Fold this sequence. Notes:
243 residues, three-stranded antiparallel β-sheet, 9 strands
Amino acid sequence: MPSTANRARLVGTAEIGEEFGVSTGSVTLWYNNRATTGFPDTVGTKGRARQWEYGAVSDWFAAKEKPRLQEAGAAIAGDPDELLNATQVAKALGYKNANQITNYLRNNPGYFPEPDVVEELGTADRPWTRKQWRRSTVAEWAATRRGKGNRRDLAREATLPDVSPEGDADELLAAPAAAALLGYKNTASFSSSLSQGNLPLLKETDGILPAARGSSPAWTRRRILEQATERSNRIRRTSSPAG
Length: 243
């Protein structure tokens, strides 16, 4: 639970989107329909942008997340040594498909547990791997996972690299560098926003780079800066109150 001082701080639409891994459009929609969604009312404005008390927003997301976590807990129950593939893990955790698991492993190393079993399958021409997790591994992660909006957890994330917007426009940059150029606080926020579809210009990658665990998707500096401009313009639009 956030500290008293942290609960009292004010956050805008863009900050809520980044911290809780949702689109700014969703925040606006929940607020506009707060009579039915129960989303907190604003406590003021900063310029023309709406401001909310962080504690109230955090409580709302916690209540929204609770049913999914309860359902996931029931789905994870069973033989602790049973092996689950990515699709089964995603279903047990309440995700729509395995893309979220793949995103965790690829873009946020260390957040989700590495598979307990990796099988090399296919043929020499068309190889593929099957990753599996023990049910106990998934259950332990679900019980101890870093919660959305927990800034103490975010503070422990690896420091982003110091990346200059100047340089070779065609240089390939991995997720940490992209997160830094886009103004995210950490790679986790960037990865979450990417998976939510909030960074449309980065939907397709420009290449791959070596990483601690295999390889990492990468984008050119040019494409990242174009996305930074688009994101900045979108945040300004969505942060302005309607009417």
